[in-house]
Structures are given as C-alpha cells and as structure tokens.
Amino acid sequence: MAFRWKNTLKESDVTDEALFLNRRQLMGGAAAGLGLAAAGRAASAEEALTPNSWEDITQYNNFYEFGTGKSDPATYADELTTTPWTVAIDGMVDRPGEYAFEDIMKAMTTEERIYRFRCVEAWSMVIPWNGFELADLLDFAGVQDSAKYVRFETLYRPSEFRGQRSGWIDWPYVEGLRMDEAMHPLTLMATGIYGRDMPNQNGAPIRLVVPWKYGFKSIKSIVRITLTDEEPVNTWQQLQPSEYGFYANVNPEVDHPRWSQATERVIGGGLFSPRIPTLMFNGYEEEVASLYEGMDLTVQF
Ligand SMILES: Nc1nc2c(c(=O)[nH]1)N[C@H]1C(S)=C(S)[C@@H](COP(=O)(O)O)O[C@H]1N2
Ligand SMILES: [Mo]
C-alpha cells in the first residue's frame, strides 16, 4: 500500500505564490496509521524545499517536440492543443481503453508534491507539482501479473509539434519504468504546477515525474501507457546508448562520459547561480535505494 504525505494547506488555501513559498511538505498521519516504518524514508520528503519561481519552471525547459533551445518550449507552447486529450492504457491490463483526460481526473485525487528535479545536463530546480501517484492509475487499469515494465509515449503531432517535423529523433518520444519503479509512491503523474493546470511547455495535460531519475525519464504530454514484459527502449537510450541508459538514476558517482555528475547548477540563481553537490538518487536515497540492491549502477546507468 502506498505511503502518503500531505501538505499543511490545501490548494484552495493558496492565495499567492508568496504564501505558497512558506509551505512545508509534511508527512501525513495517514502513513503512520498504515503501520509503515515511515521515519527514515520520509526524510527527504519532509525536508523543506523552496520551489523555483513560476518563471524559472516555465521558461527554461527541455521539450524537443518544440525545438532544442531552452526557450523554444515556452515560445511555441501555444501551438499545441490539449483538448480533447485521451490516454490509451493497453497491453497487460484488465481494463484497457482510451481514457479521456477528464475521466482520469475524475477518478484520481490530486495532491501536491514539491520535488527536486535534476536534468542529466547537470542543472536542477525544485518544482511544486500537482498530480496523483502512477500506482493509482495503474491500479485503476488493473495490471496483470505478466507485466514487468511500463512504456510511455508522447503525442505525435508534427502539425503542432514543430520539432517533430525534423526526423533526427525517432518520434514519438518514449520512456519506460520497471514495475517496482512505476508502483513506487514517489512516482507521480503530474497534471499541474503551483496549483494551476500544467503549462504546455511542461508537458500538458499530463506527464510523468520520477524525482530520483534524470529529467529525461519524466516524459511529457503522454498519450499511451503500455504494460509489457519487455524492457522499453527509451528515446535517449536509442539515440546514444553509450551515454544514456534505461535506469538513469541520479548518481553523483557515475559521470556522464562528457561531464561530471558530481555537482549541479541551480536554475534561478542568476549570474551567481550556485553549484551544489548532487545527491545520490537526487536526495531520495532513503526511499528508493532498496529498488536497486545488488545492481551495479555503473553498468546499469
Ligand atoms: N516528450 C518529451 N518529454 C520530455 C522531454 C522531451 O524532449 N520530450 N525532455 C525531458 C528532459 S531532458 C527534461 S530535463 C524534462 C524537463 O522538464 P521541464 O521542462 O518541465 O523542466 O522533460 C523531459 N521530458
Ligand atoms: Mo534533461
């Protein structure tokens, strides 16, 4: 059963960003009630994180469907239409279907999660997401025992995604998770930021957020979720397998072949943008290290 933590205030209590910035994420009493040994694993979730500004989060993006520049997603975001939107859930599930985004939202309860976000390019932010646990959506669809992985696909629509008119990436963008990673309570399907609907440049209307992995795992604008028994080949692994793997766990001890992963540049620091040490599993080690026991993380990077 999933553990949960709640915020001290609900979205309805948020009057402005300044108030928002004063909030802390707290471990909910619910988790203790479930009898989980919450103390250790709550450590990073409980820590006060100061989110980046709305501007940082929505003006400095990676979303190659809109172009490769950091400001391309914000510049061309309006070219994408996100209504109507459906998410196909298929493969090894009991209730496959084309689910309308609104129906998913009716079935799920969203909450706020303030997470660290670390790109493989060695920059980072702190982002206040709104969303629900992927596990809840997978339970809703009914995962069959034969399923070992989850494969995600982004919308393919070159008429609106100008980046898809060039073919250097084999569109659509694809990502994947192992089943235990997908079911982990930190793994979020995000539908908003700062209590507002997800901006297009951040992956509207629904995207994945896996806070202990490099940002490229957090696939945007999802239209298909497939339960499978084969490890999916994700887009960056397909493009450059010597540099990007399937797991992509944040790890300061395993450098990218072309740069160090030991530190990261904090977005929003202006000219004096500080570099801070990168944390193992991006600071979520207590919660997720057990998933990778016995694995050589230098080989399965
Ligand atoms: N479909 C799709 N998803 C994507 C990407 C992309 O280019 N296309 N870029 C990834 C990378 S490299 C990062 S760092 C994050 C950036 O998310 P953000 O712009 O919301 O910060 O989105 C990830 N998800
Ligand atoms: Mo990234």
Q: Summarize the amount of helix as a percent range.
A: 10-25%
Uncertain segments are 1-44
What is CATH's topology name?
Answer: Sulfite Oxidase, Chain A, domain 2
Q: Can you give the mean pLDDT? A: 88
The number of helical segments is 11
Shape: globular
What Rg do the Cα atoms give?
18 Å
Q: Decide which structural class fits the backbone.
A: alpha+beta
Number of spatially distinct domains = 1
N to C succession of SSEs:
EHEHHHHHEEHEEHEEHEEEEHEEH
Share of β-strand residues: 15-25%
The end-to-end distance, rounded to whole angstroms, is: 28 Å
CATH class, named Alpha Beta
Features:
single chain, 301 residues, alpha+beta, Sulfite Oxidase, Chain A, domain 2, 7-stranded mixed beta sheet, 5-stranded mixed beta sheet, disordered N terminus, binds ligand MTE, binds molybdenum atom
What's the layout of helices and strands?
Layout: E1 5-7, H1 17-21, E2 25-27, H2 29-33, H3 38-41, H4 43-46, H5 54-59, H6 72-76, E3 86-91, E4 97-100, H7 101-107, E5 111-118, E6 123-133, H8 134-141, E7 149-154, E8 174-178, H9 179-182, E9 188-193, E10 196-197, E11 207-209, E12 222-228, H10 235-239, E13 263-266, E14 275-277, H11 285-288
